[in-house]
């Protein structure tokens, strides 16, 4: 299929903002099950001494994350080199749960990952690009 996929303004957003502490994100309803891409980018600054960010993507049958919680996987660790970048980190997942969220774990001294965005997109979006990594 030729052409460029359109970004959906209503795509499920699991994170959009600063991450500076270990946290569990809010449940987000994802209405297109099966194969998806979960895409993480850091378009702002990364500060601190040897900052690291690990992001795990989870799913559940209910918004309280009390029923059948699963892990879809983790992104490769994000570091200072990922700041102010258009590079996308992509996690391909087969999703059968109605709700998704992220769990973030930060490392280093005073780590701050500004403007970190994690979204869910159809699997076909941006399948092959030089700026995409696992």
What does it look like?
The relative contact order is 0.37. It contains no helices and 10 strands. Strands 1, 2, 3, 4, 5, 6, 7, 8, 9 and 10 form a 10-stranded mixed beta sheet that branches. The model has no long low-confidence stretch (mean pLDDT 87). It is mostly beta strands. The chain has a single domain, classed as Jelly Rolls (Sandwich).
Quickly describe the structure.
With 134 residues, the chain is mainly β. It has no helices and 10 strands.
Integer average pLDDT: 87
How many structural units, i.e. domains? Answer: 1
Listing every helix as H and every strand as E from the N terminus to the C terminus, the arrangement reads: EEEEEEEEEE
Q: Please state the CA-atom Rg, rounded to the nearest Å.
A: 15 Å
Largest sheet: 10 strands, mixed
Q: What structural class is derived from the secondary structure elements?
A: mainly beta
CATH topology: Jelly Rolls
Instruction: Specify the overall morphology.
Output: globular
- What's the N-to-C terminus distance? 23 Å
Helix fraction? Answer: under 10%
Proportion of β residues? over 45%
Low-confidence residue ranges = none
CATH structural class: Mainly Beta
Quickly count the helices.
0
Q: Tell me what the CATH architecture is.
A: Sandwich
Please provide the count of β strands: 10
């Amino acid at each position: 299929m030729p052409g460029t996929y359109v970004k959906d303004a209503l795509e499920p957003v699991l994170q959009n903002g600063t991450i500076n502490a270990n946290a569990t994100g809010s449940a987000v309803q994802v209405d297109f099950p099966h194969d998806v891409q979960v895409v993480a980018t850091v378009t702002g600054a990364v500060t601190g001494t040897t900052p690291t960010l690990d992001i795990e993507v989870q799913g559940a049958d209910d918004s309280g994350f009390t029923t059948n919680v699963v892990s879809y996987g983790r992104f490769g660790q994000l570091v200072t080199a990922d700041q102010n970048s258009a590079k996308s980190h992509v996690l391909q997942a087969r999703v059968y749960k109605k709700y998704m969220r992220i769990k973030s774990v930060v490392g280093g001294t005073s780590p701050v990952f500004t403007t970190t965005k994690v979204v869910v997109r159809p699997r076909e979006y941006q399948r092959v690009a030089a700026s995409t990594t696992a």
